[in-house]
What we know:
This is YjaG family protein. Pfam families: DUF416. The chain is an all-alpha fold. Helices cover 70% and strands 0% of the residues. It has one domain: YP_001051499.1 fold like (Up-down Bundle).
Amino acid sequence: MTKANNFQRIRELNYLQKAVLGGALLERMLPNYSLFSEATGFGDAAVFRSALSVCWEKILLPKSKISLEKQIEKIEPNVPELTDFDMFGTYPAIDTATALLGMLHGLIAKDEQEFLNISKISQASVARFIEYQLTVDGEIADNKAVREHPLMQYEIDVLAELIDFVEQMGRITSENVKELKQLAVSDGQTNIGIAI
């Protein structure tokens, strides 16, 4: 029997498992936005950090009265426009914003598809980064080169490891969420391989 692919495995998780997995992936993506913000002086990375913290709180305390809509209002003005910046870092910054907004919308609408999309956005972000690197190096950036690139293989492995952890979590508690968040950033780099 072949090992189920990651996206299929995510589909089989329950609502809360999908939510915490999305949060863990966002922990890996968030520093990409911070680095972009530092480099350009655009946006407020603290708004993103705070919004993700609110998401974690909502997952752990579903009855809490925190307003996720307010978080969306705070994030939207901090999403960069591609046309305003002539640097690659704009792409992962937008991907982070898109994934974070998806997380918030998913929690508001109880829409599990939004959480699955975060893993797809993260992987697409890695793919775009690899294509960019290969092109800069004068290499062919076709699907095979991207798929077999060590960074993409690593992204797939990290996602599988996070899914393994989430599958074993049992009841979601602040304790095992803390462990999951630590696991997500334990390698000290973002999803696109930038040291944090």
